[in-house]
Specification:
The protein is α/β, with parallel strands linked by helices. The protein is built from 11 helices and 17 strands. The mean pLDDT is 96.
Length: 338
């Protein structure tokens, strides 16, 4: 079957390519996609030159839903709404697929979802209820990243979870704090951020503080760092200062540069530092089930949608990326009409 793929050839320049896909798995037509900061780093050319040379041209975007067009095994019906899983295991490993060097990740190691059709194995999609909000579902992948980190936290935390702190007032911080409050309703969830206009949206949190205005008597049992870049250094410093002994520090933020950590206090307090990256099928399933059981979460998640762009051409795609880049908070959703 003929397929058109829309690849980033060089920073800010997309091109069309004609590929063929075989009808031996599940074929999905993308319907709604969501731009991630990782996509922007490729589009803006802010990744190191050697990485851009190695990975481009490449189709971007790893957050997307679509409709099933064909399934060779007949496990899915034509028209089924599904979320697509970008992480693709490439063999057995002792660790989870999202941490395995053998796995390939769409929009990073190989083509993402900006194409007419996507061919996947049936374990790389999860069926969605028809009444789910399509625009929110477009970024279920991002939600699944927070979900897998929270799940891992529940497995390793050995001290009480009475007071949980989330550092970061961006998209991931919002989602992480929201799901922590839903999954740990008896815990006090406190959000620490820099931008008051963003913090005002965290209406579900028990407490919010600007990072430079935290009372002296505040402490936490466990922390989630959702800041990233060079700012994660000051966030981790504050976390180590405020966290109680034997707490867990759950890191989500990505930085292009090494971040120093006060290991003296990590040792003195007996802290556990856990890294979190990406997700896998069980996390997508967990998110879908959580949303089924708690439909009120959609109302909060809709607050993250700041732009919705109709994509009918490559020029529309470029304009959507430019518009997203100017947004300081929230998600840009692409209604994929190409």
């Amino acid at each position: 079957m003929i397929n058109i793929v829309y690849r980033l050839k060089s920073p800010k320049f997309f091109e069309e390519s004609i590929d063929e896909i075989e009808l031996d798995g599940v074929v999905v037509r993308p319907t709604y996609l969501s731009i991630c900061q990782a996509d922007q780093r490729y589009y803006q050319g802010s990744r190191p030159a050697e990485i851009l040379d190695k990975k481009l041209p490449m189709a971007l975007i790893h957050e997307a839903i679509g409709e099933v067009v064909f399934d060779s095994k007949c496990n899915f019906k034509s028209g089924d709404k599904v979320v697509m899983i970008p992480n693709t295991p490439m063999g057995d490993d002792v660790c989870r697929a999202n941490y395995s060097y053998k796995s390939k990740f769409r929009g990073s190691g190989f083509d993402g979802f900006t194409s007419d059709l996507i061919k996947l194995e049936d374990d790389r999609i999860v069926k969605l209820p028809d009444d789910f909000n399509d625009k929110v579902c477009a970024f279920i992948e991002l939600i699944s990243v927070a979900y897998q980190g929270i799940t891992k936290f529940g497995e390793i935390a050995i001290t009480p979870k009475d007071k949980i702190g989330v550092w970061g007032d961006g998209n991931l911080g919002f989602i992480t704090a929201l799901f922590l409050k839903e999954l740990y309703p008896d815990s006090t969830v406190t959000v620490f951020g820099k931008h008051q206009e963003n913090l005002n949206l965290f209406s579900f949190a028990d407490e919010i503080y600007r990072i430079h205005d935290v009372p002296d008597n505040v402490d936490i049992d466990h922390a989630f760092e959702c800041v990233g870049s060079s700012a994660s250094q000051s966030a981790i410093e504050q976390i180590i200062d405020l966290i109680n002994p034997q707490g867990t520090v759950n890191l989500f933020g990505v930085s292009e540069y090494p971040i120093p950590i006060n290991t003296r206090m990590v040792l003195e307090k007996g802290l556990t530092i856990q890294g979190n990256s990406r997700s896998d099928r069980e996390d997508f399933i967990g998110v879908v089930e959580t949303l089924k059981e708690n439909p009120q979460l959609f109302e909060y998640l809709e607050k993250l949608i700041t732009n919705t762009c109709e994509i009918n051409s490559l020029n529309d795609l470029k304009e959507a990326f430019d518009k997203d880049y100017l947004s300081k908070f929230g998600k840009t959703i692409l209604k994929w009409n190409i």
